[in-house]
Predict the 3D structure of the following.
Amino acid sequence: MSAWDIGQVSDCRLANQGMINRNFILRTTRGKYVLRQVSHTHHKSPRDLKFELSYLDYLKQSDFPCNVPSAIPTKNGRLFATVQGHYYWLYRFLEGRVVKNLNQPHLAQLAQMMARYHALIVRSNLHNGKPASDPSGRTTVLKEIGEYRAEILRKKNTGEQERTFLDESAKLTKILRSFNAGPYSHLGRYPIHRDLI
């Protein structure tokens, strides 16, 4: 971690090991940070990661009402580092709380946040230089689900989370395959994380 000079690391743990990114929470003498190892699925080149970081910066500069991660530059001024073919970037840990069951006020708050987000993105003129995918992101999601399911099924022992993923992804796959995206194909396309479409 000397590249960032964030203080002495007293604790490091893997916070999320999914099929997308890996996040390591670092407790240091200068506070908590997240070191993110970026997935090759969505970031095949430095340009992809630069776009994501500029996207986050745009939200932060636009007074988006929620906390947004902001890349901490390395000692040489870069926003990310490349180690053994993987991209890493660092940001200050964002405190929050986990809401286990969404109720009506939570949903209203989420809807307001999404409306503000959408209004900012429509005005942004951000473009990642790639052609638009299908409106629901279905093709990519089905591909990723299939890859992750195959990875789990190759293992001898699976945990509760992996068994839950296998059960729930089987249901989701049926829904995605039957989904008619036709009516949505004429809507405007904006850079948005497909989990939120």
Remarks:
- The first helix runs from residue 46 to 61.
- The chain has two domains: 1-130, 133-179.
